[in-house]
Amino acid sequence: MALLAIIAACAPLDMGPRLAAYRLLVPGQSTTQDATALLGWPTSATAVDHNTILAQWMNGAQYVATTFGSNGRMIGVQQVSGL
């Protein structure tokens, strides 16, 4: 039992979404649901125009911004920092 407590204490803490997973998203193929499954809920999502949503994920110094079309498919990665 004590060994289990020591192992649990040494386990890395979950520091939020792992934003480096954005590399698994494919423009024109990946959806907003795919992005949410990989990165978690976006920190913000803003309508750029009637057909484009800018989704942003932030985790400390890490930042990823991607755009999605009205069909829910990824248009592309707009900005990445801290990764």
Describe this protein with a few key phrases.
about 35% strand, about 80 residues, alpha+beta, single chain, about 20% helix
What would your notes on this structure say?
This protein is an alpha+beta fold and 83 residues long. The chain has one domain (17-81). 20% of the residues lie in helices and 36% in strands.
Summarize the structure.
The protein is built from 2 helices and 4 strands, in the order ααββββ. A hairpin with a 4-residue loop joins β3 (62-69) and β4 (74-81).
Mean pLDDT: 84
What series of H and E elements makes up the topology? HHEEEE
Radius of gyration: 16 Å
Could you list the spans in which at least 5 consecutive residues all have pLDDT below 50? 1-15
The total beta strand count reads 4
User: How many domains?
Assistant: 1
Tell me, briefly, the overall form.
globular
Distance between the termini: 38 Å
Strand content: 35-45%
| Helix fraction by DSSP (H/I, runs of at least 4) | 10-25%
- Find the structural class using helix and strand composition: alpha+beta
The largest pleated sheet is described as:
4 strands, antiparallel
How many helical stretches? 2
